[in-house]
Prior knowledge:
By secondary structure, the protein is of the alpha/beta class. The chain is built from 13 helices and eight strands. The chain has helices at 13-24, 39-49, 57-61, 76-80, 84-90, 103-110, 142-153, 167-175, 177-194, 199-219, 224-230, 237-247, 250-274; strands at 6-9, 32-35, 52-54, 66-69, 93-96, 116-120, 130-136, 156-160. It has an eight-stranded mixed beta sheet with strand order 3-2-1-4-5-6-7-8, with helices on both faces. The chain starts with 5 loop residues before the first strand and ends with a helix. 33% of the residues are buried.
Amino acid sequence: MKDERITFIGGGNMARSLIGGLIGAGAAAENISVGEPLTELRESLAQDFGIKALAENESAIKHADVIVLAVKPQIMREALTPLGTLIRQTSPLLISIAAGIPAKNIERWAGGKPALVRVMPNTPALVGAGMSALFANESASAPQCDLAESIMRSVGTTVWLEKESLMDVVTAVSGSGPAYFFYLMEAIEQAGVREGLDADTARLLALETALGAARLALESTEGPGQLRERVTSPGGTTEAAIRTLDASNVSDIMQAAVSAARQRSAELAGILEDN
Length: 275
C-alpha cells in the first residue's frame, strides 16, 4: 500500500478519514491525491496532510493505481462518466464508498468492466473505529482485493460479502447502526437525568458504559446474549430492567427497524439506478 498511487474523487469527511488513516498506516503523502471542486476543502486537505489536491478530477486520476469514489450517490454518474475514457486506458482499481450505487451502474458509467470493489463503511471510520463491508466484481484480482481491504482497514475493521445484494442488509445493520446506538445512549442519558443525575454525569455514564460493553463483547468468547445473562441476577435490578424491555417487545422493534432500513436501502438503490 505504500507505493500505490491513490486518488480520491471527492474530499468530504469519509475521504478525509481514509486519507488520515492511510498516512497513519504508512502510505506516502506524495502518493495520495484528491479531486475536489471546492477550494476550501482542497486547501484544507493539502495543508493538513501534504497531499496533492486538484480541482479537476481528470488531472487527479491520470497516474492513479486506485481511484476511491467518495462523492455523494446523487452525483456519482455526473462525476464518473467524464473519467471513463481515462479509466479504460489506465485500468485502475475503483473503490466505491457511495451507498446504494450497484456495481453494474458504476461499471456502465465508467465504461467496460473495470476492477471494482464496493464498500459500505460507517461513520465511526472518522475516528478509526469503522466497520466496512466489501464486495468485489469479477474483474478485481486477488491483489486488488487485498489492496482495497488494506485501505479500509486503515480506518477500522472489514468483512467481505459474497453477494452484492447483502449490501442492503449491511447498510441496515452497520451503515445505519451507529444511529441506533446513539438513540439508545440518548435515551439512557435522558433517563438518568429524569431520575436525578445532572446532564453531564448522565451522559458520561451512558457513553462510557456503551463503550465498555462494546469492548467487553468484542474481547469475549461469549455472545451478547450470554454476557447479558451474566449480569442479570435473578430478582436483581438488571432483571427488572430487562423484563420491562421484553414487555415492550424491544427486540422485535429493533428487528423491525433494521428491516425497514434494509427495505429503504433497496428502494433508494432502485431510484438511483433509474436515474
